[in-house]
Write a structure and sequence with these properties.
about 375 residues, alpha/beta, 5-stranded parallel beta sheet, 4-stranded parallel beta sheet, binds iron/sulfur cluster
Amino acid sequence: MKYVDEYRDGELAKGVAKEIARQAHPDRVYRLMEFCGGHTHAISRYGLEDLLPANVQMIHGPGCPVCVLPMARVDMAIACVRDPRVTLCAYGDLMRVPGSQSSSLLKAKAEGADIRMVYSTLDAIRIAENEPNREVVVFAIGFETTTPPTALAIRMAQRKGLKNFTILCNHVMTPPAMHAILNGASDGDEAPVRIEGFVGPAHVSTIIGTRPYEPFARDYGKPVVIAGFEPLDVAQAILMLVHQINDGRADVENQYVRAVTREGNAKAQAAIAEIFETRESFEWRGLGFLPSSALRLRPTFSAYDAELRFGLTARPAKDNPACECGAILRGAKKPRECKLFGTLCTPDTPMGSCMVSPEGACAAHWTYGRFRESEAQRVREVA
Ligand code: SF4
């Protein structure tokens, strides 16, 4: 398939991997964070780590929207849908994200709450139109990629005069999370993880462009290479980072030139700016409360704000103390370092958010990485 097969060519990938191994100096370690969950998934699915030399290490980042959603926001959605007038519309992955006291949307649905899985905000618009007696609330999550569709849904609801359509807004922004990763956890009790460079997000960057990453190169001295989601995209981005590090450069480079520009998508940015404003602070699972890191509806669109309509507030909730999602989302640990991984916590019984979405580090490692680990172990034993 055009634009897919050529980016999954195994022979080409081996060639890029050989070049990475040739360029990587044996006396240094290259610790590279792939910020985005889509890249984490691609790295696990295509076994890219197996192709890298041992001193080029990938660190998973917090760029999985389901993973960074804190329990308090899941609890808010459940509190909202306890109102018998409410129909909550949510994307499928959200159904199993753990809230506090072992709750989840899936359990609330089983107990009778009206929760419907949707594929887009337009599905929710249709429900609101067809069922005017229901209060339709969209549980909106995601980074800059999914914010424009939410903005367009609000515009559409306004145009159609829908009075029964609101948004529970949890849209977050990528650059503040990258700042947090480089500065350490917001509570200040953990040193930042050591990172030499970032593989920058693909879809997010189609919206915001490459310009917002420039401070990470300029002020922190960290190279950023924006990469597409196919395995050859990621491999090439890793090679570009290795080159930059070897040269002592810290630039923002764009591997994903077929979709990303420096300025990004002006129309999508305008739609976001029209409907949303920045929150002073927002809680991220694993990163704590980050200033200016998330969006809410502007006062002119407050009629579509579920938090205001239903008087919802976020109440503090603690993650399962045995779950290492926080450390994994900060890049401080790997899934296999959690003692619940593959025992109490599997995709069927997720104890933490990183085991829910395919973009989550634990789910990706469960689905792909653990088999390779056991194969490597078997080969070692036979040898
Ligand atoms: S394996 Fe489960 S409990 Fe452990 S960090 Fe991952 S999601 Fe959390």
